[in-house]
From TrEMBL:
The keyword Oxidoreductase applies. Keywords: Oxidoreductase. The keyword Ribosomal protein does not apply. Residues 1-17 have a biased composition (Basic and acidic residues). This is Uncharacterized oxidoreductase YghA. The lineage of its organism: Bacteria, Pseudomonadati, Bacteroidota, Sphingobacteriia, Sphingobacteriales. Residues 1-51 are annotated as: Disordered. It comes from the Bacteria. InterPro entries: NAD(P)-bd_dom_sf, Sc_DH/Rdtase_CS, SDR_fam. It comes from Pedobacter cryoconitis. Belongs to the short-chain dehydrogenases/reductases (SDR) family. GO terms for molecular function: oxidoreductase activity, acting on CH-OH group of donors.
């Protein structure tokens, strides 16, 4: 019997509390939607660290918000696990997206870039069509794009702003999943990015937090609806993660400087620290996991 699995090089233990930069973080702000490449420090999406082992060989994945943050970490990991990957992002995010496309290609996989605004139903339909065409099918859908703007008071949230959050975080997944469903065969998966905000909403994230409760809810509802069809639906619930969304209106400057300080690990998380969760939920060996919310929040906020 071959014992290939035993050929592993040992790695030193890493202390999760000190593995990444700790607060206080440098004051910074960017116009929305922000670029990961312009953050200080630049977030870790696993560019130098993620090592694949064929867990998603031959899969075809579409990831919204795949240019930066959790979506980028998932895109890099998926490609290195053997999947072809299409990413959606906003035209303003082209510099971040270009880097992700290069990384997917470097992993030897097909990379499809589909920029566009998810607040339009017609674009959501076209996004799925283009992804299916480009990838030659679809079996992993990661609905990850999100809009988060901090407002001290409900009185500061205009109807237009409220609508923007709802369109991005609730309508777009609805439109995209509807368009994708006819293409998803048994064994396919849908993964939504929810948040600890779904269950522990912050005072200043009135509109955003309720969209994340909606995400957790649609994951559980759809899991029941699609289980009999062999399609699994799960959610990832991050805690405070160092991403462009937080420096482009998502957090107050005070919160940003101390981001994650109140978590038991004492720091913000990095997108790379969630990559393996997106992989795990997509992999075929997770075949009994559906309707689940998997979290990574530094010790706070259980999903
Ligand atoms: P991010 O800014 O890197 O990614 C969000 C992405 O959403 C953007 O890159 C952008 O491409 C996309 N997007 C936003 N509006 C869009 C629109 N109208 N059309 C098309 N694309 C649009 O930030 P992130 O933190 O990685 O966010 C990814 C997901 O994680 C979001 O759903 C967010 O709510 C969730 N989340 C983030 C945190 C955190 O602390 N960073 C915590 C919990 C959940
Ligand atoms: Mg981005």
């Amino acid at each position: 019997m071959k014992e290939e699995h035993k050929k592993v090089t040992s790695k030193p233990l890493e202390d999760p509390a000190t593995k990444y930069p700790r607060p206080p973080y440098q004051e910074q702000t960017q116009p929305w939607p922000g670029l990961a490449g312009k953050m200080t420090p630049v977030p870790d999406h696993g560019e130098k660290s993620y090592v694949g082992s064929g867990r998603l060989a031959g899969r075809k994945a579409l990831i919204t918000g795949g240019d930066s943050g959790m979506g980028r970490a998932a895109a890099i990991a998926y490609a290195r696990e053997g999947a072809d990957v299409a990413i959606n992002y906003l035209p303003d995010e082209e510099p971040d997206a270009k880097e992700v496309i290069e990384l997917i290609k470097k992993a030897g996989r097909k990379a499809i870039a589909i920029p566009g605004d998810l607040r339009e139903e017609s674009f959501c339909k076209k996004l799925v069509e283009d992804a299916v065409k480009g990838l030659g099918g679809l079996d992993i859908l990661v609905s990850n794009a999100g809009r988060q703007q901090t407002h001290e008071s409900i009185l500061d949230i205009s109807t237009a702003q409220f609508d923007w959050t709802m369109k991005t975080n609730i309508y777009a997944p609805f439109w995209i999943i509807k368009a994708a469903l006819p293409h998803l065969k048994p064994g396919s998966v849908i993964i939504g990015t929810t948040s600890v905000q779904a269950t522990d909403p912050s005072a200043e994230l009135y509109d955003y937090a309720q969209t994340k409760a909606a995400t957790t809810s649609f994951v559980k509802s759809l899991a029941k609806q699609l289980g009999p069809k062999g399609i699994r639906v799960n959610g990832v619930a991050p805690g405070p993660i160092w991403t462009a969304l937080q420096v482009s209106g998502g957090a107050t400057m005070e919160k940003l400087k101390q981001f994650g300080a109140d978590a038991p690990l004492g720091r913000a998380g990095q997108p790379a620290e969630l990559a393996s969760i997106y992989v795990q939920l997509a992999a075929s060996d997770a075949s009994y996991a559906t309707g689940q919310i998997y979290g990574a929040a530094g010790g706070n906020g259980q999903p």
